[in-house]
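User: I'll paste a sequence; please echo it back and then give the predicted structure.

Assistant: Echoing your sequence first, then the prediction.
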Amino acid sequence: MIRRLGALLVAGLMLSACGTVSSVSALRTWVDKSDFRSSMSTLSGDVRSSASALRNASMTASDLHTVCGVLLLDTEEANASLPTPDNQATNLLSSAYTNLGAGANECYDAASPTQRARALLSLTKGYAELSEAKVRIDVASASV
């Protein structure tokens, strides 16, 4: 009986060792499969376009709907790739996507200067978190 338990324990340890993937390798795989770099570039451009539109008082509600709708769709698509294998990166990206989504929704309905300012604040916060998440992912996926 003790030999069986010992053999079972050794077999379990050997089996679990076969499936071990380093956190660096797992994060690199996630970056590739989620197309994170391309998503970052797309979202950065979307945020710049939306912020520019919000700062332009001559932009109509229809113009804002279009620009901010694109940002919202791209944010939702990026959010669908979560979670990452890194908890800190996941938390940063989740918060960034939440703020970018809020900013896109606020932008979509920004009729007054106050509403535009609120949307810009959400976009700024989301973009800062997105940048912080990128740094975290770059550091956590680097070989030391």
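Residues 113-140 form the longest helix (28 residues). Confidence is low (pLDDT under 50) at residues 5-18.
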